[in-house]
Amino acid sequence: MESTVWLASRSLPRPGVGCCNLLSRVRRSGGRLKPCGNGRKVVVCVSGTEGKTKVVIVGGGVGGLAVGGRLAKEGYDVHILEKNSHVGGRLQSLEVEAAVGVGGKSDDPGGQECFRFDTGPSLLLLPQKYRDAFTAMGEDMDDYVTLKKVEPAAYRVFFGEDEGVQSLDLLYDVQKMCLQLEQVEEGAGGAFLRFLANAKEALDKDLYVGLTPYNAPGVFSLLAATELTDGVWYPVGGFAKVRDGLAQAAQKVGATITTKATVKRIDHANGQVQGVTLEDGTFMRANIVVANADLPYVYNSLLGSKVKTQASKLLSSKYSASVIAFQWALSSRLERLSHHNVFLSNCYEESWHRATDASTILERPNFYVHAPSRTDSTVCPLGTDAITVLLPVAHLGEGFSIGSASDDKQIVEAARERVISSLVRSGIGDISSMILSEVVYSPPTWQDSYNLQYGAAFGLAHNLLQLAYFRPDVAEPSIKGLYFAGASTRPGNGVPLVLMGAKVTTNRILEENYPFLSGN
Ligand SMILES: Cc1cc2nc3c(=O)[nH]c(=O)nc-3n(C[C@H](O)[C@H](O)[C@H](O)COP(=O)(O)OP(=O)(O)OC[C@H]3O[C@@H](n4cnc5c(N)ncnc54)[C@H](O)[C@@H]3O)c2cc1C
């Protein structure tokens, strides 16, 4: 894989015109010139394709693909290394074959007998940020991904006591939304308008300007503002379309992608990055390394002891929850579900404590259900359903009990039982007899699949002191040439933020390094 060319001094012409010609030729093609010895001898090192600055990216998640594509477009020689057999990281779609005879053909002209699940992101917010990522690679997102607005409601919320679970739709139509809220509680409509106006104003200013511990709580209302103003969108064909689109666009501008390539170590010496060593022992020299894998894992497993302080600081940071996820293929369609559904517990305060074992999962926990066939007919055969349930639980660092495989099994069983009984209470239907197939993700799955520290599905938490500028920087100051991209660096977690972060990382690299080695 090494493409460095060394021209030893004996291969140089005599000093004089010939030598100068060679030097300027090398400079033009981007070679690095390093005088050594008595001044007559010159060692020329040309790294990467045609003398381009060589960048290795550790991880092919959204962050890695977006930075890789941007840098390739700028003229860098980019190699993205992904440990799994697919790029995309947490952003994935999973297809499960339907049992023979289940459901009718979908009304999609292509038809299919598959159930499709988005195992990571399911809400596509701030579509412009996705568009920007493609534009930065010189591509048009519409050539890769078709977005459809989730309508008429952004999502449906189920709440209330056992005797009367109610539902409320988060409608884009503000007037209808106010009327609906007034029916639940007098005065709630006006309060909603004030809330929305404040959130919108903050959003229009800038997502991150003014974020201090004194005014940051308002930041969380931005989510609601973007859902109701920009809308919630869905990529037709599933989130895999976003994954494949980003990968294809990055490859088109020259980035190479290697899957099943696990990086064992990021090599550095004397404060300078040198490259990476793969699990099979291969060393890949690089001028720049961008680590897209989860940052706490990078510091603790890939960088060695030189960065001990930052490594242990990250370990003791606050982490997001983990989740138990169920992907269920169902023999019937659940008519009361909307595309996005939130089920709220009847025990408000208790419900925010993260469950650590089977006994601490509430009878009626908070959970989310994704049912995308309401927007996209290619999700499952007609008359059936494909739903994903996400139930937040503790991460592995805060006592999630996995002493043995049977512990994990018990928690998953309790989670399944509580979700199903909550669905029954909410009038969705008894799905226990409808489940044709099930795929489960629990905290150890998140840890093992993507090297997420503690199996925390969303990485470092978004508390006020870990958001935007308070999140770890996109470069490691003590190792020149080492940069970061992804959910646990600035500005934060979630695909749009990771895409915004990719721009920040790219700009930093452009400021500090030339795409051709002569400028380094
Ligand atoms: C269940 C769930 C639901 C979510 N819902 C939403 C949503 O609705 N909307 C939204 O916008 N966001 C959502 N997110 C968040 C979103 O998925 C992430 O913010 C985003 O995908 C993170 O991308 P990333 O590039 O930072 O990291 P990752 O996706 O973690 O990518 C890092 C990559 O590095 C690879 N890697 C790790 N170690 C190595 C190694 N040693 N060598 C080589 N490769 C390595 C990993 O395999 C992975 O592919 C959700 C996440 C989860 C888990």
Automatic annotation (TrEMBL):
Superkingdom of origin: Eukaryota
Classification via InterPro entries: Amino_oxidase, Carotenoid/retinoid_OxRdtase, FAD/NAD-bd_sf
GO MF entries: oxidoreductase activity
Domain annotation Amine oxidase: ranges: 217-491
GO BP annotations, alphabetical order: carotenoid biosynthetic process
Pathway named in the protein's UniProt entry: Carotenoid biosynthesis
Pfam families: Amino_oxidase, NAD_binding_8
Alphabetical UniProt keywords: Carotenoid biosynthesis, Oxidoreductase
Protein name: Amine oxidase domain-containing protein
